Amino acid sequence: MLKEILVNVREEETRVAVLEDKVVVEIYIERSLNQRLVGNIYKGKVENVLPGMQAAFVDIGLEKNAFLFVEDAVPPRTTTDEEAKSNYHVNITDVLKEGQEILVQIAKEPIGTKGARVTTHITLPGRYLVLMPTVDYIGISRRIENESERERLKALAEKVKPANMGLIVRTIAEGMDEEELVQDVTVLTKLWKKIQNRSCHGPVPNLIHKDLELVQRILRDIFTEDIDNLVIDSRYEYEKVLELMELTTPQLKSRVSLYEQDNLFEKFGVDEEIEKILKPRVWLKCGGYIVIDQTEALTAIDVNTGKYVGSTNLADTVLKTNLDAAVEIARQLRLRNIGGIIIVDFIDMPDQEHQRMVLQKLEEEVRKDKTKTNVLGLTQLGLVEMTRKKVRQGLENVLLKPCPYCDGRGKVLSEETISIRAKNEIFKLAQHTSAEAILVEVHPSVASLLIGSGGAQLRELEAKTKKSILIRGCEHYHQEVINIRALYSQSEIEAIGVPVRPGQILEVRIEEPHASNVYDGIGRVNGFIVDVEGASALIGETVPVEITKVYRTYCKARVVDLHK
Question: Where are the transmembrane segments (predicted)?
Answer without folding.
Answer: none
